[in-house]
Amino acid sequence: MSLKKASILVIDDDTDVLTAVRLLLRTEVKEVVTEKNPEQLPFLLGKDSFDLVLLDMNFNASINTGNEGIYWLQRIKQIKPEVSVIMITAYGDIDLAVRSLKEGAADFVVKPWHNEKLLSTLSNVLKNREQPKSSNSSQKMVAGKGNNAMIGESEVMQDIFHKIDKIAPTDANILILGENGTGKDLIATAIHEQSLRADKPFVKVDVGALTESLFESELFGHKKGAFTDAREDRVGRFESANGGTLFLDEIGNISLQQQAKLLTVLQNRQVTRLGTNQAVPIDIRLICATNIPLSELANENRFRKDLIYRINTVEITVPPLRKRKEDILLLAKHFARIYANKYLKPNIQFHASALEKLQQYPFPGNVRELQYTIERAIIMADSATIEAPDLLFSPIESSVTESQEDEVTKLSTMEKNTIMKVIDKHNGNISKAAKELGLTRTALYRRLSKYDI
């Protein structure tokens, strides 16, 4: 169906949104009806025949507060299952919007939107209504390009790919969460490649590896003579990424003092090189990543909440490989193609026993461990078929046995008791306790949070 022939119902309790949509659509569609109160939905759907509903995610209602959009989506699908629904959401509700797709929504738009983007979304949804379901069933399995592409056909990865599609064209700051080896850097790269800044610099910094003395120099730059080893002017990473994307990896490992300096730059949108008083304006899209759970970051003894809000307009949580086992074989075959070409061993195949072994292994090192396992197997294979004995998993990442788990529990108990005794000894003085324990204050706070002391 073409947009010109469509009847569209818009439900939003923001009159400004309703006015803007009505003005935009009145010359683009056959009919546009707007309504502030979602309680009127059953009446409106029974009275008129609509092809598409634009539905806000949140209303000031008493029903299912915070999830009103999901509730009314379900009601629409009960009353008129054939009607397509597009959800209207804000950056902070992206996860909820992705959930709405599972509940039957055709798509969602993020406000504030570009008018062309909204019209394109409406047109695509209307066109897809007329296509057989089989034509829509092929799932997107790739995000990114070339050998650095993310691969996955599991439902959780489809959610991530869809989220990347939605947030990449915006300038929203992104926080990527996940264990080591899950591919957080690939997601950051994919977001940049699909953004409006794709032709601008993409600068990656492992901020967790920067010492206190190097932090400002690396990120903000310095002038010649600013300190002993400053033999020439140096542009910092923020300036290098100007106009493009700055990816700060391992953001959860920086100290509170470093966090304060970073927050100042992000708030002011300008940097001052060491050794100068001249502020330089910056225009960057910020992506951060950490393997520390958000619940731990929320501990203000280790991470500033105002910085979390600044870097976390939208968050993406990457699941460990053991939580998406249906992707293991797809990834294994992907890496096999790459390394078969690299090591001039074409037509590499997997024996059934090898595939079974891959699916049974928990991969504590995640996708990175799988990648290295496949590369090693192809290098060592004596034939064109990889069999189970060819798959040697890294002892570095090997699973902890039950006896080892018992030992770990005992060691954890000992560590907790020791920390408590030293803190009591110094009457709660964290600095003195950390010094005696041979830890930094940040490392000690991390253990206090871990053991709930």
Summed up, what is this model?
Helix content is 44%, strand content 15%. The protein has 453 residues and is of the alpha/beta class. The longest helix has 24 residues, at 402-425.
Keywords summarizing the entry:
five-stranded parallel β-sheet; Helicase, Ruva Protein, domain 3; Rossmann fold; 15% strand; globular; 44% helix; 453 residues; 4 domains; alpha/beta
Structure commentary:
The protein has helices spanning 15-25, 41-47, 68-79, 94-102, 115-129, 133-136, 155-167, 184-193, 212-220, 237-240, 256-268, 294-297, 305-311, 328-342, 352-360, 366-380, 402-425, 430-437, 441-450, and strands at 7-11, 31-35, 52-56, 84-89, 107-110, 142-143, 150-151, 174-177, 202-206, 221-222, 234-235, 245-249, 270-272, 279-281, 285-290, 314-317, 349-350, 385-386. The chain has 453 residues and is an alpha/beta fold. It has 19 helices and 18 strands. Strand 3, helix 3 (68-79) and strand 4 (84-89) form a beta-alpha-beta unit. It is globular, with a radius of gyration of 26 Å. The chain folds into 4 domains: 3-135, Rossmann fold (3-Layer(aba) Sandwich), CATH 3.40.50.2300; 166-317, Rossmann fold, CATH 3.40.50.300; 324-390, Helicase, Ruva Protein, domain 3 (Orthogonal Bundle), CATH 1.10.8; 402-450, Arc Repressor Mutant, subunit A (Orthogonal Bundle). 32% of the residues are buried. The chain is 44% helix and 15% strand. Helix 2 runs parallel beside helix 3 (68-79), helix 14 (328-342) packs across helix 16 (366-380) and helix 18 crosses helix 19.
